[in-house]
Protein 1
Amino acid sequence: MAVTTHTLSATEKKHWWLTNRKIVEKYIKDARSLIATQDQSEIASALNLLDAALAISPRFDQALELRARALLYLRRFKEVADMLQDYIPSLRMGNDDSSSSSSDSSQQLSREGVKLLSSSSESPVRDHSFKCFSVSDLKKKVMAGLCKTCDKEGQWRYLVLGEACCHLGLMEDAMVLLQTGKRIASAAFRRESVCWSEDSFCVTNIPFSGDSTNAPPSTPPRTLLADSESVAQLLGHIKFLLRRRAAALAALDAGLYSEAVRHFSKIVDGRRSAPQSFLAECYMHRASAHRSAGRIAESIADCNRTLALDPTCIQALETRASLFETIRCLPDSLHDLEHLKLLYNSILRDRKLPGPAWKRHNVRYREIPGKLCALTIKIQELKQRLASGETGNVDYYALIGVRRGCSRSELERAHLLLSLRHKPDKATGFIERCELADERDVESVKERVKMSSLLLYRLVQKGYTNVMGNIMDEEAAEKQRKKAALQAIQAQKEKANEAAELNKVVESNRSSVENTNTNNTQNRSMVSSSTVNPAVFQGVFCRDLTVVGNLLSQAGFNRSMPVKYEALSC
């Protein structure tokens, strides 16, 4: 009786397993037909069928592939990355780095790169000398050997995950995955093309059947070639973006800030759209270049774009707060620092950095407590400065980018350029060249951009009004100084003319006195040389020449002057 019961239970178990397998295959067949329609609502229904199939058989490769491709078609790239995050190279390297030392991490990084990029035809270099080995490396080699038989089933992960990483801004990971998938697909195509007949190259569509005997042995050749062409185009775009970014970062490190800005502008203003996180990173680097070049308003605008695309970007908040402090706009700086403090507290509360595990950050979790302590001290200092009344001393000259004492034309030109670049109506234009990871985030991104650009525009207009007022005051003061200088010059000229006239009068008086003396001398000589009557007066004798000169200067030359004559008898 016991044997009979055991036999019945085994039969029921076998029947149950066969029933589940048929159900999973039916779900997959229906999902394929729905995906073939290329309608988003039908593909969403296919996702529900695939989820039901995976609930029964979680590791069924066909269901996983269809689900990943359906998510990719619906542009739900984050879900693809979450689904296949164990295959992202940078995430695997980060996990290895967390469990190994810093010296071993660099070697592990190089080994992973070689393993992912090296061709399968290359033979490893054998070294018969004794070496210490890592248990994790041995485990990976053993698992790789065990999984060689299922490499054919997992080829789709490289291409699907690589495309998803590209749209998520993980450019290095996308390039590694796409190159590896392209190489594996090409090798599989070469192997399978040997057994294909000539008629098989004309196959355009092969219907899918739930029975494995009726299913095609492999993907049709034209499908492989089409996938190869799309992968090649995607790889070309990725390499272009990475080359541009590498050139921009090299120029930034070399101190060529204008050149770095030019390269980053080629990326963010390009004809072809770029991923959201990659653009946010480029805007952040361009903000650093603008800041180093002294263009404060441009740097703040790029920080605003970065925070609109990634509100949890720690570097953008730190940079913008520092820029506001540089121009002594302390309330805005304090606002950003308070926001950063809330972000640090949420990180410590969740015990992880914001976002999914595959998202890249420029800070590590272990650095957050120290940054939070320094940030708290900084916030207290700013609050003390605000309490002391240091609020209205904003450096608008540095904000607009003009020198102190600039002319009206220089200010108007700088203000016109800033107004055209940072006008709130045009602030959302860069979103058209941005490939958002989730299309549902478009409105929230636009709202953040409009708000931040409006605040910057108002600050620029306030700075223009303030600087223009200073220039007008300086012009009025300059006019007063010129007027006073002109009056002083006129007074000096009048004094000089009076002095010249006085000199002329003195010279004329001196010449008249000399003539008078000459005449007196002549008269004396005549008196002494001739004999005259004693009763006749013989000349004029002046006993005081100074009195005569004063009388001449007071009387003028055209009027008669009474003169007192004194005569002497000879």
Protein 2
Amino acid sequence: MAHFLTGSSSLAFFSRCPPHRVISSCSHPALCLTGFGFVLWMILAYLGTCVFFFVPIVLIRDFSAAESHRRHAVVQCGTSSSTPRISEPEVSPAESSAVIQGGTAPLVQALQSTASQDVACFHFPGHNRGKAAPSSLSKLIGSGAFLHDLPELPELDDLFSPKGVILDAQKRAAQLFGSSKTWFLVNGTTCGIQASVMATCSPGDYLIVPRNCHISVISALVLSGAVPKYIIPEYNSSWDIAGGITPLQVDEAVKELEEDGKRVGAVLVTSPTYHGVCSNVQGIVSVCHPRGIPVIVDEAHGAHFRFHDSLPSTAIEQGADLAVQSTHKVLCSLTQSSMLHTAGDLVNVDQVSQCLQVLQSSSPSYLLLSSLDAARDHLSKNTNIFDEPLAIASETKDQLMIIPGISVLDLPCFASDFPAIDQLRLTLSASDLQLSGYEADDILYEGHQIVSELVGTRSVTFTVNLGTRVQDVEKLVQSAKHLSEKYFFANSSKPMKENCVCGPLDKISVHLTPREAFFSKKRRVRIEDSLGEICGELICPYPPGIPVLIPGEVVTHDSLSYLMNVRLQGITISGAADVELNSILVCNL
């Protein structure tokens, strides 16, 4: 019985003992069993076997369950990245939102902690935390990027159902940016715009939108089935730049649709524009909210507004319901990472979350997500972070304005009462030097190694940001002076170039909705023969990403002339199947 008493299987013990030995050859009288005693012994042996088999199994299952519970628990980082705190997954969202956990950048800390684990990895991605990283890219960006390129492990939370570090990081962002809820975006501001439109507009609803909206709005119209009601923004032909829209224009558009019995799903405003022109969002909100109409703001270029008193007010501060910001532009997260903010109760936040799950990758990059958390942390620790960039931009603007032949875009360039232009955008014109924006940009780049942000037919835009150095703007000013010295007198005797730029957005005619045109059959025609046809593709000089022709619009003389001029200058065209723009697709009705 030694085997039985030490936990070995009693069945194995009996299998090793012949029956006659068990019954009649016992060495100890007390263990010699006959008749009823033998039967009793067999029963006890069987029960003992069950106990010894069952107890270890229960213990193992309980231990495994405990390990699984810990592994898949909600992990929230404490002050030390190496000792994550684990909270019970049964905690309700209300309880979870009551306190923001410790640590200054929870998602960054969780990523660092997880990447430092000494584990055998059998999960994606295939480079296996950098062990199989392509050497050419690893040499370029370092092995650390691959080490931290991790999938949605339990320790790193779930972007579409956040309960741990992502929820914590998003709450911190909402607190800093002044919203009631913030979503992290890994598909850029584009997916935030699309989700905002889809969450507020059902098929057939009208979306009031400026005609100089970003191409992401057009894709949102295709996805949602909403019908556009375009507002034509003020256009300065001398600069070939469109401004913002006014509350009066929005009010007129809403009334016109109401009179026709149409339902307005939302109003979308681009503020600031790529050139930094801000619309009166507060005034637009005052027009919309009494009617129960939510206001969406494409604030891609205004993520920094909240972080200095001299900067314009943010869309959320002015009462917008949804604001989408490119955190990667003026702020310092990685390219393609953005945030979507909401406030008020006009928009169903669950609907927004569902739309984002449809639109965003199911394999989000934790490098992008953690960069949003890191950018937020960086801003929260440096309250005066924009003092220097604003001082640099102001001094640079003053110096540029006194250079002969150089003009700087400012509010007086527009007749409308726009509240502000972003001080960190410096848009220059060299038209008085007889130079187009493209010519000036080429000279500045090839001759002075100045890289601009945005080039237009009659302007060049430079952005001052957190990384701009004094020597950079000094170089820009000196280069602009050189441009003036070289071309001011050389071209002064030449006749002024005729301003052949016409407003491409003034006279639009919509025959189909973007969704109808997108899914219609099409044919290709020469661009010279496209006048009067219904455009079947989105044709857009990029940057700035403002479409000249949208699917469903009639090709007009103004839009065709503008595109021909753009093609002549060799400008990049986005959206057209024929990148050379010798032909375009039109709807085959």
Protein 3
Amino acid sequence: MSPGISRAPYVTRISCGAQNDVRSSPTNTLWHKDFGYTGGIRMEANRPSYITPPLGTLRYFPLSEGPDNCYNIDKVPHGHYSVRIYFGLVKEPSFDNEPLFDVSVEGTLVYSLPSGWSSHDDEQAFVETLVFLENGTTSLCFHSTGHGDPAILAIEIQEVDEKAYYSGPGFGRGTIFRTSKRLNCGDQNPKFDVDYDGDRWGGDRFWSSIMTFGQNSDKPISTKSTIKSASAAPNFYPQALYQTALVSTDNDPDLTHTIDVDPNKNYSVWLHFAEIDPSVTDVGQRVIDISINGNIVFRDIDIVRIAGGVNSALVLNTTIPVSGRILTITLHPTTGTHAIISAIEIFEVIPVESKTLPEEVKALQSLKLALGLPLRFGWNGDPCFPQQHPWSGVDCQFDNSSNKWVIDGLDLDNQGLRGFLPDDVSQLRHLQSINLSGNNIHGLIPSALGTITSLEKLNLNGNLLSGKIPAALGGRLLHRASFNFTDNAGLCGIPGLPTCGPHLTVGAKIGIGLGACVAVVVIATCITCWWKRRQNILRAKRMAVRDAPYAKKRTHLNHIQMTRHHHNGHHHEHTRTAVENGPPLLV
């Protein structure tokens, strides 16, 4: 995206551990709450440096939750980004107040926290990278190294111009720039771009201040003149950056600055100039040579001529390998008596590491859930990278045909796994060895496992697996594959295991079980009804036996009254039968 585009660059800021959105002073910057990005524990935070934003919480990742933990941020538009991660200290006296751990961005290791980082008010309080993000997501991971647990205070992701820090053909896609040092020469106070009212497409960069390069009293100068941008200086650099400078003195006409770096790395060096010295007004009055670690990298630099006039910006860039731990920049005047410089930026150039095939990463994540993998395994980020932090129990190899890493081995024996084997395991089609022995894995062996033609060793012994061994796996035993299915009481179907009976699917087994339950209920209902009916019949019989004497007396009296009625027929109309009057009272 070019700076002239009217839309604002994408930006998201996360206050790690925050339960609500917060704003930080003095710029009233919005920081979003930390929800749904990662695991870990919310903790109160101590601020290690004035550079870090004034936020009160952080996200803490104890080793019990795994050695590798990641923030996964979705819906990040394709583009060029400045990604900055601030480190924090847990606000608890019992905690190690300076954890040392590694940081990776998109699977590439970019930083290892040095001892003493929390006592420096400089770039050591955060890590900043320039990276192209192309997959719609951002993965930022923190890897334990055995020296305290990671604690992250805040994360910033800011879109910058696609041509920012353009360093030549192949720029950006195969490399990540990590900020090693950024100096504003001649300014008394360190600042962010926002303090300079910098262009929004440059990112909110932090600039350390420096008033002298060494023991010599280099002369700081400044101007209020507007600085013109040249084609060599993209206009997303803040104006104020070029309104101060350091100028060498008569005692030492050279300007020399030394910076500590990591050895055996490549560094991209960016040198910023503007001729703001009032004593220089025209071409040819100041010409300098620039050397790095004793080698001249730029000759005959006439700032006025190259930039197109005084008060005009000029940016020079070169990339150099450094074998030692020192990077020394020297500006030597070949015409005129003094050297001048406005700002310096130094980036470590980090090759982007190839990632693991996405379908194999997805299959491992499915396996993680299905097996109920303990938290201590982690299994976050990329399985194979950074190379210093591969997933525990996972073996990787590079696949030249896809230019990606693939999974060729799983070794998770005796880990207390209690889940099942998912069908997605067949997506790990480069597997040569699987060892899941000595666990409590249950269920069937997926038939899709037999489609992994590269599989040479399979140890599933000592589990709770059941059902028939897939035919494709059984056939592999004839091709010198080494499979072990012993100590699974429910497995059958190959020599050495029981013969299988009629094989029922899980659905069929569930159907039979439900049918049996229904039958039991029906039988129980019938028995209950029969028992109740029988009790009613027996109760009726007992009542009939109890009432028998009363019935005999009643029959005798009726007989007597019927006889009397026969002999006194003429009184018929005035006499009621015994049946009508009921039984007489006996006294």
Protein 4
Amino acid sequence: MADSSLPKTLNFNVGVLGHVDSGKTSLARALSSTASTAAFDKNPQSKERGITLDLGFSAFTVPLPEQLKESCGEKQYDSLQFTLVDCPGHASLIRTIIGGAQIIDLMMLVVDVVKGMQTQTAECLLIGQLTCSRMIVILNKTDLLPTDKRQAAIDKMTKRMHKTLENTRFKDCPIIAVAAKPGGPEAPETDEPHGITELIDLLKAQAFLPRRDPSGSLLMAVDHCFSIRGQGTVITGTVLQGSISVNDTVEIPALKVTRKVKSVQMFRKPVPSAMQGDRVGVCVTQFDPKLLERGVVCTPGSLQILYAAIISIQKIEYYRGALASRAKFHITVGHETVMARISFFNRVLPGKENGDCSPISQEQNANSFSFDWEFHHLDEYLTGQAEGGRGEPQQWALLEFERPVTCPPLCLVIGSRLDSDIHGNACRLAFHGKLLEGIEDKNYTETALPRLKISKDKQKEGAVERVTDDYTVIGRNLFKKETNLQLFVGLKVTLSTGETGSIEGGFGQSGKIKIRIPGQQHCHCLLKNLTLSHRVLLFIHRFGPVSMLISVCKRTGV
């Protein structure tokens, strides 16, 4: 016997993404029969400009398709609700797109059939590849094509889109042509949209039973907050994980407050609970809605507040800029976007000497990390083949956030350069990865980073001043007189003639050093080969915090 408390309607989240003015909101409006409180551009600025500035939500319900009746098993749903997440297309609002894309099961990529793929269309496609497994391409605004050439133009654009998608995870996705708002936004409502019935049939055919797990801690992505006189404050959003029930206590981590759930609604219908994937309104009391427009709600104490993080990292191939250590990027993590400084590193393989770091493929170490490993600092992200030719080498990065962020473990991380020219045609999404280690200590540079064993090769050049005995030479021009030479005692020195030695200590007060040449490398022999102009190469290896790489190094090992 099925549990009577289970909802009869299966919720399926569909993201509507695409370039600005491609007709996403018109498409969502044409598809929808019920609009939620956040639907269709609540922002006054959006109404003035005629574009979506925030996530809009709306929904429509259809009888449960036959293919889902079999896969639902004991969960006896009788209808399927498509919740449409209308993501903004304006380039400066890509952070909102990323936030919206993390809560969708299927993506509709809306393309202006006249203009084809544009910069933001490509960025939306990249975000889709990182966040969902299925996609439908909508060729919109077919009413703008001349009637006698319409089908030929649609066929040509369909072929072009298949070519664009052939190297992506969506290479075999369906493509359908529609006119969501014939005549444009100002046209009378009497003009019927074209192709919407066929699109609904396609959506029903593409729908699947999403993974829905009510267990674990609650995490709800909030997109809107408003008050109802006499009732309290309603927080609307999508349950990303876990479940929520009436009388639960929830936390708003950004404000460090907890509140009791008074009631729960799904598209204006009261329900006793909701679970992962559901779009809900949650009513709480004694809370000012102005304090929370976007963010997350969670089980008390379940989320980390991070000042820094270790992530796995992979460059997005269409990003043309350099990925250099110490650079700043916009980091979208959880449902927040914040600036962070990044430092790249890869792993030193056991048994490798002198910091030799043969690249390890992504496959070998995907999403794993340990403070026990030894790493090698990278001045910039490595591209090319890993050892064995299996993809790019595995790399990690340290992110140091400009302000604390709240996010769950192992969440998606996307790095971008949102400050670049929004009218340019360059991809602004730079890299993606997973959060592997969150650092919650505000004083992480003193407590957490010293545990991170990252080495950096440094090279200094100096000159041999003279030979003092059979096994000792004096070197100069390597250090300033105020340098603490004890930090460098024992480090390896290579002479330009091939001999090796080590630093014994300082010589005098001017920064000169005494170098010991051991064994059979006799210094009387060197006299024949060395002059005062010959160089000494000093290779320094040190472990310590990435944030101190440029400063004078404390020596903890060679």
